[in-house]
Amino acid sequence: MQAPRHPLPWLQEGDPFPALEQSWDDEDPAPGLLAASASVSTDRLIAAYRGGVFPWYSAGQPVLWWSPDPRTVLRPAQFKLHDSLRKTLKRFVREPRCQVRIDHDFGAVIGHCASTPRAGQNGTWIVPEMVEAYQGLHAMGLAHSVETWMDGELVGGLYCVGLGRMVFGESMFAHRRDASKIALSALVALCRAQGLDAIDCQQNTAHLGSLGAAPIARPLFAQMVAERVSQACAHWQFDPLYWREIL
Length: 247
Prior knowledge:
By secondary structure, this protein is an alpha+beta fold. It folds into 2 domains: 10-68, Leucyl/phenylalanyl-tRNA-protein transferase, N-terminal domain (Alpha-Beta Plaits); 72-245, Aminopeptidase, CATH 3.40.630. The chain contains 7 helices and 11 strands. The strands form 2 sheets. The protein has a 7-stranded mixed sheet with strand order 6-7-8-9-10-5-11, with helices on both faces. It has a 4-stranded mixed sheet with strand order 1-2-4-3, with helices on one face. Helix 3 packs antiparallel against helix 4. The chain starts with 9 loop residues before the first strand and ends in an 18-residue tail after the last helix. Mean pLDDT is 93; it is low at 119-123.
């Protein structure tokens, strides 16, 4: 592994994050890595998201803080609803036993996400201290779950962070086919209905790209976040009428 061009900053309690431009780049071992710390807390998470930074690490590692360039953002207005998913959503909406719930069981959603490894990974980055920190954000009304329910059972969903008018997507899970896509579609519909125009997706994947997410330069992303996090908060409740925004 190549040596970094400069040491990774180690954050003590109360230390501010370094400038985003200090993140490691393509000439370093882990492009986008900005800093590390011994622990994570709700206050640190809030400061991170407000500054365009997110945590991502595995068990046994220090807490690693990232700010990649470019950053991947899904604009709800540019969401690509493919024909197969459109048909799935129409069936879902017509079925009385199917519904979307917001924040009904945040703990279960993040628990399922934590037990579902990402593609190509054996473990999960959502370690117990991360679960505790995000549950703290949820208790403060800053982290939310979008849940897919069928026949009275939670079958899929996602959780995200909402600061002002900015949404930061985190992780999804599905126990039935397309259940996580239904939750994401519901989040997009909610954002459209309430005038939220950006969902941070962190890093680019082929799946996110197929849904309309696109990379933007880190300075533009930082400006986007700064403009939105200080605005009035969204109303985190899903009205079935919101489906009209995308169907």
